Amino acid sequence: HIAVHHIDVDDIKKLLNILDRLVDAGNTVVVIEHNLEVIKMADHILDLGPEGGGKGGYLIAEGTPEEVSQDGDSCTGQFLKRVLARG
């Protein structure tokens, strides 16, 4: 388990490069993350919510980053939309 929120931007880029190489080698990689820079690189997102704990755990949105960013029910999607617009 690696807490990405404690890693600087350069190290996040290195981590994403490693994950890409694992996928390119035919592996399935599952990442549980809140960092939008990491989330935007996913092939597929499962957005759970709407909150944490007893008020969460429900599937709110599912799809590519672009699809989730267009889902009006997804709080993650609303913030992800801004990150995707920046490139």
From TrEMBL:
InterPro entries linked to this entry: P-loop_NTPase (IPR027417)
Chain coiled-coil ranges: none
GO molecular function, one term: nuclease activity
Chief localization: cytoplasm
Compartment(s) of residence: Cytoplasm
Protein family membership: Belongs to the ABC transporter superfamily. UvrA family.
Native species: Candidatus Hakubella thermalkaliphila
Keywords noted in UniProt: ATP-binding, Cytoplasm, DNA damage, DNA excision, DNA repair, DNA-binding, Excision nuclease, Nucleotide-binding, Repeat
Keyword match Cytoplasm: yes
GO CC term (a single one): cytoplasm
Name assigned to this protein: UvrABC system protein A
Transmembrane segments: none
Protein's GO biological process: DNA repair
PANTHER family per UniProt: UVRABC SYSTEM PROTEIN A
